[in-house]
Write a structure and sequence with these properties.
homodimer, about 350 residues, alpha/beta, Rossmann fold, 3 domains, six-stranded parallel beta sheet, 13 helices, elongated, DNA-binding
Chain lengths: ~350, ~350
DNA sequence: ATGAAAGCGCTAACAC
DNA sequence: GTGTTAGCGCTTTCAT
């Protein structure tokens, strides 16, 4: 092992005690400002890097991370949870504990209420999937108290988060546009389904999609579509409108899991494999539709990774003071086609086989 | 922190000393067989799990992993190295060191020679990308000595490796077939390029590809192609033959980075964007061809992950005795289209932005 | 074959 | 504000 620089070496070099070095290095109170400077300088000079194992061993008490995010029955959220749990299992050895604090995905207000009532002192770090821009105030308040807060799945760029981790929604839409254009060979009419009013990322996907169709496949017409909320009827109406046009080829880009499920049902009920359906997210029902050919491709946000990586990175910040170079961290959107739906089970990339 | 079971607790419960518990738990010599049994039983009963931090701290000396794999100038190999290096940086804190032992990718004999001469005693674990089935003997010899050996990128299923980690080549071919079928709308003629004689995985990709074309797109003809080795001329000849047919649409599946580069050049030189070219791996040149539309899609093996994960998992085995549930671990093949080539730079998924 | 004890590098509690 | 010291859970060496 390369000779490791220890706190004791710094103490000797500065002609002081290891206790004072500890105070300086860890920003504790009760230390003379210039002593701190001197020690920090020496540590830098010697290339000191804390031994996190000794640290965790000595601390002998867990750090707690609060994971605040919505859940419901859909696989998307349970995959996030599984990812966090995997990280938790790995991190428990390093004295990190995680609390799961869930609210309803469709009720931003309940998340805000929860944040208002939460005892922040009980936690050392926070990971939040914010449902509303009003969460910013809480993020900033926590950050002010010196504790790290990570955002995932949905960003609040104006907040003082340590980092945001998620997929690039615009690129998701762009890839969908590319697949659509390739399969439709640059001609026909398409429509985009989504719950645009309620869910911000859907709009970003829509924009990315339109950009690509516009730039690379200008002969494909984009039919304006009205919001689908969570209603099959509205989906049918939009598809009816699309099919009523005199185009030769038809395409549908569905920007979220719920409308993807509805679109799959609709295309299957109509028995129209000639329609190029491209969707988002994976569930067992959606995967089945892809296997049978009703849906041609899916864009996968890898929710498991979103949970796992957020937890891991936050732990790294806690354990070794790591900070990201970029405050926005992305998970690459994966493309799922018929031949790799087998990798997905319960809407999740099968982690018993895949790393 | 949940009350952790320590060696001291086991020692007390067994009315023996912590030193003896250490001997039992870590399979050291100099301990009575039944004492060992008793201690192991108690440890199991109490749910003992070693504290790897205390262990590493106390050991105060590094474990060494030998990484034996081929390299040349191509991005594919440098990405593997970058992945290993990332793992190394993370693992150095846990007393793990890595040695990089490289040979020429096209010279299996030199790798064998190296294995013959290597001092196995200098290492605690081994990660090997084997170039020949003759490596099996070394894998087994090392395994017999009780040290873990992981294989990556290329498997030797008959060997006594701890695990194999890589992509599913058959699925890579299947996905390529799917993309080809979708874009060609199920009709036309395709050929498959590769270096089949020398490189085993290429053949697996070929088979997967043919399966899908056969099962789902039976109206696409597959033209037999002769081996391309590393020669542009041979690629041109194969493509000439393909184009000489009376098919309306043409497709090319290229099974490795070198023939993908050559195929991109050929398609561009011919100015034939109508040819559906699907390739494997990413380099700057290949990415450029995708951006410009000469190549429609790439299948990416994520060499970075292959290196990174192999190192991480081997370390986990060393530090905490982890063993995989399945001895074959896969990295999911990624699909790269024009809209996500920007994520790749120097043939690698940009890790400064992407997790 | 077994036990005792000295650390590994750090934190936290206490003394000055 | 600073120094001292007792552990954290384990490995390793030295007695027995």
């Amino acid at each position: 092992m390369a000779k490791r620089v220890t706190m004791e070496m710094i103490a000797r070099a500065c002609d002081t005690s290891i206790g004072t070095v500890d105070r300086a290095l860890n920003n504790r109170k009760g230390i003379n400002a210039e002593t701190r400077q001197r020690i920090m300088g020496k540590a830098e000079e010697l290339g000191y890097r804390p031994n996190i194992m000794a640290s965790a061993l000595s601390r002998n008490t867990d750090a707690r991370i609060a994971f605040i995010y919505p859940t419901n029955a859909h696989a998307f959220f349970s995959c996030i949870t599984k990812g966090i749990q995997k990280a938790e299992a790995e991190l428990s050895r390093y004295g990190i504990e995680i609390d799961y604090i869930n609210t309803d995905p469709h009720d931003p207000a309940s998340q805000l209420k929860l944040l208002e009532e939460l005892d922040f002192d009980g936690y050392d770090a926070f990971a939040i999937n914010p449902l509303s821009s009003k969460c910013s105030a809480f993020v900033d308040a926590i950050a002010d108290s010196g504790k790290p807060v990570a955002l995932f799945n949905n960003d609040l760029p104006a907040s003082r988060r340590l980092f945001y981790l998620g997929t690039d929604n615009s690129q998701c839409g762009r890839i969908a546009g590319e697949i659509m254009g390739l399969i439709m060979q640059g001609e026909g009419a398409v429509t985009v389904l989504g719950n645009f009013v309620h869910i911000m990322p859907f709009y970003e996907r829509y924009e990315g999609f339109c950009e690509v169709i516009h730039d690379y496949y200008p002969n494909i017409d984009i039919f304006p579509s009205s919001d689908c909320r969570y209603e099959q009827d509205l989906v049918e109406k939009n598809i009816d409108k699309l099919l009523a046009s005199d185009a030769k080829k038809f395409g549908i880009f569905s920007t979220g899991y719920s409308c993807t499920e509805m679109a799959c049902r609709s295309v299957e009920a109509r028995g129209r494999k000639d329609i190029t359906l491209v969707g988002c997210d994976v569930s067992d029902e959606i995967a089945e539709a892809v296997k049978k050919g009703w849906c041609k491709a899916l864009l996968y946000q890898d929710p498991f990774q979103q949970g796992y990586q957020t937890a891991q990175l936050l732990a790294r910040n806690l354990l070794e003071g790591w900070v990201p170079e970029h405050s926005t961290l992305s998970i690459e959107t994966r493309t799922v086609l018929r031949q790799n739906t087998v990798n997905y089970s319960g809407g999740i990339l099968r982690r018993e086989l895949f790393i």
